[in-house]
Specification:
mainly alpha, about 50% helix, three-stranded antiparallel β-sheet, hpI Integrase, Chain A, 3 domains, 14 helices
């Protein structure tokens, strides 16, 4: 807070920044002194006075944000933000002259959007990355590292969540499984019959499976938590038989699916899926998430209602499940054709 003081016939503005006291002589006119007081109050509020650095290095910001994330974010969020930061650092690595926060422009982030699109990232993914980067630079302003947020004026891409998801036909599922081999067959079969997310499968433990109740429990672990709430997934006859057989051969590891007794590496399954899909001649199968879409799509086409699909998938809201609504409409259209009078 700044205050106006008078000493003899001279006015002074008295203010503090980071605990340090400053006094500024502003003349003999009370009116001018009052204007100067307001000006200093505004500058103090904006952090424009004192000795706080206002243009820190990008390297320093990235280091500080990583430390901040470890303290303030959940393990899954830390992992996601670290990946986003790695993507951005890889992009700006093309421009070695970009070393300070002030060097970044709105145009640079528009170029970043195009760069990520060319890499195949979905609009939703790019928007999430921009949100995280925007938040990081707002922290930079809060910490006194920057005057402005270079991501502030960057507009999000059109949400592509309404795009119809790619899913496998029953014939494609059979071809995929036939070409998977003994290591991948149990994994892909489980994904197709449960709709689990990749991270949920990678962190699945034998203690999560209740063979008596025929349920798989997606639950929080000490070092991992599901994207949404905990849930249970029913086990059908085929999967029950597979898991019992798989358990007999894998009692040495607490993980249901593992690599030499350890948790599966995060990116290894996708690479293996792409390899199997290429060998099988399945076009457009490049993501593990497609197997999740396949589970949901075939449920809907079999007449399962969307609220039930939402529960099985672990969606946080029905809007996410609505991407399968066109399949439900097709099912309804075909249903009336069965009537004959």
């Amino acid at each position: 807070m700044a205050t106006l003081r008078q000493r003899n016939n001279t006015y002074l503005v008295d203010y503090r920044i980071n605990g340090r006291r400053f006094r500024k002589v502003v003349g003999h006119s009370k009116r001018i002194a009052e204007l100067a007081l307001k000006d200093i109050e505004v500058k103090v509020a904006k952090g424009e006075l004192g000795f706080t650095p206002k243009d820190n290095s990008l390297e320093k910001l990235f280091e500080e944000f990583t430390i901040y994330s470890k303290t303030n974010h959940a393990p899954n969020s830390q992992k996601r933000y670290r990946a986003i930061l790695d993507n951005f650092k890889s992009f700006i690595g093309q421009f070695p002259y970009l070393t300070k926060i002030s060097h970044l422009t709105t145009k640079l982030f528009e170029d970043y959007k195009a760069h990520r699109k060319n890499q195949g990232a979905a609009n939703k993914t790019i928007n999430i990355e921009l949100q995280m980067l925007r938040a990081m630079f707002y922290l930079a302003m809060k910490w006194g590292y920057a005057m402005e947020n270079p991501v502030k004026g960057v507009s999000p891409l059109k949400d592509d969540r309404n795009k119809k998801p790619r899913f496998l036909s029953k014939e494609e599922c059979k071809i995929l499984l036939d070409n998977s081999g003994p290591e991948l067959y149990p994994i892909f079969y489980t994904l197709l019959n449960t709709g689990m997310r990749k991270g949920e499968l990678e962190n699945l433990e034998w203690s999560d499976i209740d063979f008596e109740r025929r349920k798989i429990k997606i639950r929080v672990k000490d070092d991992w938590s599901p994207k949404t709430n905990e849930r249970e997934i029913p086990i059908n006859d085929g999967l029950l038989e597979l898991l019992r057989h798989h358990r007999d051969k894998n009692k040495h590891s607490k993980w249901v699916f593992h690599h030499k007794g350890e948790r599966i590496e995060p990116n290894s399954l996708r690479k293996k899926l792409i390899s199997v899909a290429k060998k099988s001649g399945i076009i457009g199968l490049t993501k593990i998430h497609t197997l999740r879409h396949t589970f949901a799509s075939h449920l809907v086409m079999s007449g399962v209602d969307l609220p039930t699909v939402k529960k099985l998938m672990g969606h946080s809201d029905i809007e996410t499940t609505m991407i399968y609504s066109h399949l439900a409409d097709e099912h309804v259209d075909k249903a009336v054709e069965k009537l004959e009078f």
